Amino acid sequence: MSSNIGSIEASVAEARAKGTERDIKFEQSFDLAVNFRKKELDVTKPENRFNQELILPNILVPVPKICAFGDGEFADAVTAAGAERVVSKDDIPRLGEEKKERKNLAKNYDFFIAATDAMPLIGRYLGQALGSRGKMPRPFPPQADFSAIVNQYHRTVRIRMRNTPTFHVKVGHVKMSDREIADNIVAVLNLVESKGFKDRISNVVLKTTMGPAIVISI
User: Distance from the CA of 207 to the CA of which of 46, 122, 177, 188 falls in 20 to 30 A?
Assistant: First the structure.
């Protein structure tokens, strides 16, 4: 679908222009909705639902927030790499007992990573809170390249389809260029195409947070 990059970039410019016609007091994001024809995509079948992470070509603004679980060398490395919060292993059981706090943790952070030896505690105390949101952490050894890992997560979105044949995903921000946002949109559409679902698309819609919907020609 990369051959349509010019028309997609033009749609981004249109969404940006129309999204700023009103007096908006905050910086807006760009959100993409991919809608499928209901009769051609039976979402009661798990194989027809999207539930995965996608690495985009361009870093999102603001960057996704990362929380890590671990101690010692692991904690020092992920902090230096840019993780917003590090939870020690000793603190995991306490979080598991505080319903409101563990719910806020799962809600307020986009991605989670963990030291390998912290995973049993996470599964026991936080598995339900994180797993229900598709946010169970990936385990890493202390020697991992956390700068590369954090950079990757800053370009990652989670695409989830539930009970309707559609999904919504953030693809940009007003601080990003039209081309950067268009490149991210192409990556999402290429994922759809790779699953063989391109011909089942009803329409693709782009909008800023407060702007009108712009239909993208694909």
Answer: 46
Amino acid making up residue 19:
G
Classify residue 61: in a domain, yes or no. no
pLDDT tens figures, 99-119: 999 999 999 999 999 999 999
Is residue 149, in this structure, part of any structural domain at all?
yes
CA distances from 7 to 53, 102, 151, 155, 216 (A): 26, 43, 29, 23, 8
Question: What residues contact residue 108 under an 8 Å CB cut-off, 6+ apart?
Answer: 65
User: Which candidate, 174, 168, 170, 213, places its Cα nearest to that of 28?
Assistant: 174
Q: Are 32 and 56 in contact (CB under 8 A)?
A: no
Give the dihedral sign, CA 68/107/123/51. Answer: negative
What's this model's pTM, rounded to 2 decimal places?
Answer: 0.87
Residue found under tokens 């995903």: 169
What six digits make up the tokens of 71? 């101690």
